[in-house]
User: Fold Arsenic resistance protein from Sphingorhabdus lacus.
Amino acid sequence: MQRVRDLLETRQVPIYFNSVVAGAVFALIAPATMVFEATINPALAFMLFVTFLQVPLADLGRALTRWRFTSALLAANFVAIPLLVAVLAQLLPVDPLIRLGVLLVLLTPCIDYVVTFAHLGRADAKLLLAATPTLLLLQMALLPVYLRLILGDAAAELVRAGPFIHAFLWLIVIPLVFAGLVQLWAARVSLGARVSSILGVLPVPATAFVLFAVVAAVVPQLGQALDAVLFVVPFYVAFAVLAPFTGWAVARAFRLKAEEGRAVAFSTATRNSLVVLPLALAVPGALPVLPAIIVTQTLVELISELFYIRTIPRLGRAVAA
Assistant:
């Protein structure tokens, strides 16, 4: 199972791109928007469950003991990046739906495939993996605060408490709780360990199916979202260029080792697009604009990761411990 899992993880980029292309082709040949719209939430719930299962929830305390790295990681993701996003957001159109979609995805650091890319980019992936529970909990707590600060009253009008809380509970909290229970089961019973091992192969296929379903649902309505998508692409490219250097600058300020600094750079550059997708879909009138904006960021990011794994390892060795 581990060999299959490693193979899937190292080939994530082509798998995800092929899923997007397949979803677009399927939508053009046999459009079934309503069918795929109904599929998105269950697929997301399962994807998040198997994704959270890979997050070492028991390592939350261990991550906190590496206080310098954890402090740098949190400062980069929850102070420096929100400031960067707030500045760049001034370039976005006044349409609150577009602004909300961009902010949802760029204010939330990735907790899953960033670890694989960090490993490929000669960063301290194990330390980053141990910090993922902290990143997940803090981003969910701080996201409404950031939206209110940057969007003001527009956030209150779009992000209604009822649907948002419902989506957060059923598509994030419950999968997270079940993932924690399976981790406990796996730690105590051999059958649980085998089940966990089998489920550990599924995050990449589950993510690929979510991308397929979202694209298949959005493409028939893309005409309504095309202007928004084209407008946010340069914004995402600017973020992709600036974010890793922002993370690296924070790492230097905290005098991290080179491998730790690269981990912070990967974290600031890689966002939690599919984890926030259910929250975006809870917004009234979300389709097709919000999912189109979020999936567009995913595609820009996947292309960027190909550059990151070649360029971030070159970030200096001069940062002292």
